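Recall from the previous lesson that a structure prediction takes nothing but the amino acid sequence as input. Here we apply that procedure to Lipase from Cinchona calisaya. The sequence below is the only information supplied.
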Amino acid sequence: MECLVAVLLLSVLLLCSAEEFASFSNIRLPSSPADGLCAHLIQPSGYPCSEHTAETKDGYLLGLQRVSSSRSGDLRGQLGPPVLLLHGLMMSGDAWFLDSPNQSLGFILADHGFDVWAGNVRGTRWSHGHVSLTVKNKEFWDWSWQELALYDLEGMARYIYNITNSKIFVVGHSQGTIMSLAAFTQPHIVSMIEAAALLSPISFLDHISAPFVLRLVKMHIDEVFLTMGIHELNFKSDWGTRIMDMVCDEHVNCNDLLTSITGKNCCFNNSRIDFYLEYEPHPTSSKNLNHLFQMIRKGTFKMYDYGILKNLKHYGRLQPPDFDVGNIPDSLPLWMAYGGNDALADVTDVRHTLKELKCKPELLYLENYGHIDFLLSVRSKEDIYDNMIRFFKSFKKYSTSSY
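The prediction returns the following tokens.
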């Protein structure tokens, strides 16, 4: 999916004016439970699922899907500890349910008795808008992963915490780990978290090795979008679908292109890409892409850089503040899985993160895994998820005897 996103970014720059691009905005927000992720993807696999909405402090309405085991029959019985799943860039909560029940983490956690909550960040298909803005307002798209960490993660966690009266396990992949590591520097968020499992953990990106991404960074395509007045990056439209079909079917082997974006994936099932594209990609903001590219250019894990004058206005200082992962309390248990072929969460950058942390996370290193393998590997259960679930079940109050 992420390879296709990169191609589309370049295609938009070459083919479209800002006015033309604006006409492609085509988000279809769920209007009823029958139009939500539960009905589309989760319930057809036989798993009880209910739709929820969490409101952030800045007014965004985020979709959450609560999932239980197919063996439990409903969501009213005794459930195990809550787990919040946080997806990657231009993905959404559906990412955790795209493969078969014995391969998809959302289903696997439910079958182990966990109270599974699939999170969806602002602007994605399964989230629900804003209390006063619409997706046609440029202000709706005025955010980056900074707001996803400080507002979306906090809002979803608080909603789950209030419903379950229990601390939460967090699982993040890619952008979901950026959100998590930034959010965990905030004591009021950490107070709701029991432990976290991070797949392809990212806080620093200065050793990223993906050739196609580096080419886009060098082109400053993110800054071009902002200069053109393009605030929303939304490719889930008839136009975007035609571009993806054209690129992959006629011009480029998308598996090879995926390698140039994410690193060589050992276990990704390329034959299912047409099915994945029924759900991916989801919209994001140009500002979010810009923030990620700032990280690559500067090798920092900081808040969004508005430039000197606007930084003074926003932060009261010339440079944006750091998200100092050294401020994550050593009392917060962390589990991390990373791969030797990951061109986005590079091993050198992961080790940089580990050096900055006060705590010593439990680590799983898979030499032949690329970035997408940690989400969609056909061997993910045996290679990754069994280890993660053992980590979660090591907490005494969540022992297997309780669920």
